[in-house]
Design brief:
The complex is a heterodimer of chains A (404) and B (235). Chain A has 404 residues and is α+β, with helices and mostly antiparallel strands. Chain A is built from 14 helices and ten strands. Chain A has two domains: 184 residues, no CATH class; 186 residues, no CATH class. Chain A is elongated, with a radius of gyration of 33 Å. Chain B has a single domain, classed as Rossmann fold.
Chain lengths: 404, 235
């Protein structure tokens, strides 16, 4: 029975193709917008997650003052990390590194790379994984060995995109000043970065003392990473670290800190929050588009009902129940909105890869976007189609028959 | 079982205008139509013929009075389900302007009351095909109404009214839109249906058409003037 009525509804729509098409246009645009917008939101969140994936919420970072802020003679030293580990409670580990840039060469290939002078626990604190070879050890540091672990991207630059990681370990690199460095390890591709700019993929990691002595020089300020035992300790940890460092650096009460301290976890939170706000905003705009398109469908359905008043009268005269008339018109609007929804889903899938071809766009197609928009469009059809269909079903048969 | 197909006692029907003014269309109709009787409703325009037909066909509620259909009091029924059931199974409507669905083929138009009755597609198609044969329009089964002549369209409409094999046929000026040749052919069909003991109530203002009926009821100003009107002899 409903199958028959839905067939009749389909027939009515097909017989008026242009109107049907125009009335679903709004739904098509609305649904594809929701899909793209949800994709943009998912993309932004994924980007943030990638960017900060080497940070954990329990980290506190301490950096030296640079440029104009460097008013004191004291500098942040690797030893400060040891003092913090000793004196601040609820700290699970600390590490220190120095970083800078240098030109790294292998044969004819050379590349500018971030140089990190690190302690042996750096890799575990930053969650970096090894592809081949070994990490740096405390002994490497003590001995100021000329050994290095290199990032995946740097390996690609120096040894070609299809490099054999087995072959890379054991190769000798040249750093500025002609010094030779042995590669002892290659990292897995990471994709993220610690501070937004410095990518671990394009970096070279050497023992702290080696770096200080042979590449960056003794005046470079260290960066200290403090790992608290739990997120709840981060706030008090920041106060404690500040107090310990002020004492260590002999700062008077009137003097400002000669270092910057921050917790990257809160940066991640803030970035995620703004991404959420953005996607919420975009989704609400798309929702408005869908609702407006629903009003469009309602409009078209009212016109259709008005045009087919006589038909409704005939149908009632030959035995159609109110329910039959209601379901036919309801089917029409649901077919319109589901049809529009399907086209919109397809269009969204076409638009997303096109957008991704443009710089700065990062749209991730998401299944939840498809489900969300499709369900919503079907509901829009049901909701906005109901009133015209209801009116149609309640028409007086004689009045309806009399209309032309 | 009553031998009366339709019985009405003091039926009134009024419309109310927006300003509250009452327009009386039917003023006290008493009517008895036997099973298998072929009755023509005649009278002046605005006399209430079509309104009476619509009330018989359960398209209109009556304002006051009693209406028995095959002995059952249905004058007070307002339930859409029951009314739709009566229109679907008990009656067949035939209109002056045919009132076919322009999007559907002749075959599908005839089968439509079967859809509303919830009959299987297979049975529906067979029944509609039978009717196409009976009414001699089989070769036109796949044509849309716009591709049919007026006479053919009215045959399709008659076939549709017979789809659920109703006891009663209600026709509102069935020949009004046809030329005389086609009109006479349609009347022959009605005569045949009357022979098959269908109860037929037909509104007409043409004596030539009315003479096919067993009995003519003459109406004026919402009242029945003559329950057994005799046509002037020159017809």
């Amino acid at each position: 029975m409903y199958l028959e009525i839905s067939k009749m509804a389909w027939g009515a729509l097909v017989s008026n193709k242009i109107r049907s098409f125009l009335s679903i246009l709004g739904i098509v645009i609305g649904v594809s917008t929701v899909i793209v917008v949800v994709g943009i939101g998912t993309g932004a969140k994924k980007q943030i997650a990638d960017q900060y994936k080497n940070l954990s919420a329990t980290q506190i970072m301490v950096m030296g003052m640079m440029g104009r802020g460097a008013i004191t003679n004291t500098k942040l030293k690797a030893e400060d990390a040891d003092v913090i580990l000793q004196k601040v409670s609820n700290v699970s580990d600390t590490t220190a590194f120095i970083s800078g840039n240098d030109t790294i060469s292998y044969g004819k290939e050379s590349s500018s790379a971030s140089v990190f002078g690190i302690r042996d626990n750096f890799f575990s604190i930053t969650n970096l994984d090894l592809l081949e070879g070994r990490f740096l050890t405390a002994d490497d540091n003590e001995a100021r060995s000329k050994v290095a672990v290199i990032g995946y991207g740097l390996a690609e630059t120096l040894f070609g995109e299809d490099f054999d990681s087995n072959q890379v370990v054991g190769q000798v690199l040249t750093v500025s000043g002609g010094k030779k460095i042995d590669i002892v390890g290659v990292l897995k591709e990471n994709g993220g970065s610690a501070m937004g700019r410095m990518s671990y993929d394009d970096a070279i990691f050497l023992p702290y003392l080696t770096t200080e002595k042979t590449i960056l020089g003794g005046n470079t300020q260290a960066t200290i990473v403090v790992l608290m035992k739990d997120v709840d300790y981060v706030e008090s940890g920041m106060e404690d670290v500040t107090a310990v460092l002020r004492v260590e650096h002999n700062l008077k009460l009137t003097q400002e800190d000669d270092f910057r301290i921050f917790d990257p976890g809160s940066m991640v939170g803030a970035a995620q929050e703004s991404a959420n706000t953005m996607s919420l905003l975009l989704i609400s705009i798309a929702t408005i588009v869908l609702i407006v398109s629903g009003v469009g469908i309602m409009n078209v359905m009212f016109v259709t009902v008005a045009e087919r008043t006589k038909e409704i009268g005939i149908a009632k005269a030959i035995g159609a129940k109110q329910e039959d008339v209601l379901s036919q018109f309801l089917f029409e609007s649901i077919i319109l909105s589901i049809g529009g929804g399907l086209i919109g889903v397809a269009l969204g899938q076409i638009i997303i890869p096109i957008l991704n071809k443009f710089d700065g766009w990062y749209v991730v197609p998401s299944f939840s976007g498809v489900i969300l928009s499709f369900t919503f469009s079907a509901l829009v059809g049901l909701f906005f189609g109901f009133y015209p269909a209801f009116k149609a079903s309640r028409l007086d048969p004689v009045d309806a028959l009399r209309s032309e | 079982m009553s031998d009366l197909a339709i019985k009405m006692i003091d039926v009134h029907k009024s419309y109310y205008l927006a300003n509250g003014e009452e327009i009386k269309v039917l003023c006290g109709i008493d009517l008895e139509i036997k099973r298998g009787e072929f009755v023509a409703l005649m009278g002046e325009s605005g006399g209430g013929k079509t309104t009476l037909l619509n009330i018989i066909g359960c398209l209109h509620p009556l304002t006051s009075g009693k209406y028995f259909l095959e002995g059952e009091d249905i004058g007070s029924v307002r339930d859409d389900y029951t009314l739709a059931f009566i229109r679907n199974k008990k009656m067949g409507f035939i209109f002056q302007q045919f009132n076919l669905f322009s999007r559907l083929s002749a075959w599908a138009n005839i089968a439509l009351p079967g859809v509303y009755a919830g009959i299987d597609k297979e049975k529906r198609d067979i029944r509609a095909l039978e009717l196409l044969k009976t009414l001699d329009i089989l070769e036109r089964k796949d044509h849309k109404p716009t591709e049919l002549s007026g006479g053919q369209q009215q045959r399709v409409a008659i076939a549709r009214s017979l789809m659920n094999n109703p006891e009663i046929l209600l026709a509102d000026e069935p020949t009004g839109a046809l030329d005389s040749k086609n009109g006479l052919e349609v009347m022959d069909i009605f005569k045949n249906l009357a022979k098959q003991k269908k109860t037929i109530v037909m509104v007409t203002h043409t004596a030539e058409v009315a003479k096919y009926a067993d009995r003519i009821i003459y109406m004026r100003d919402g009242k029945i003037l003559d329950n057994n009107y005799t046509l002037k002899s020159d017809y």
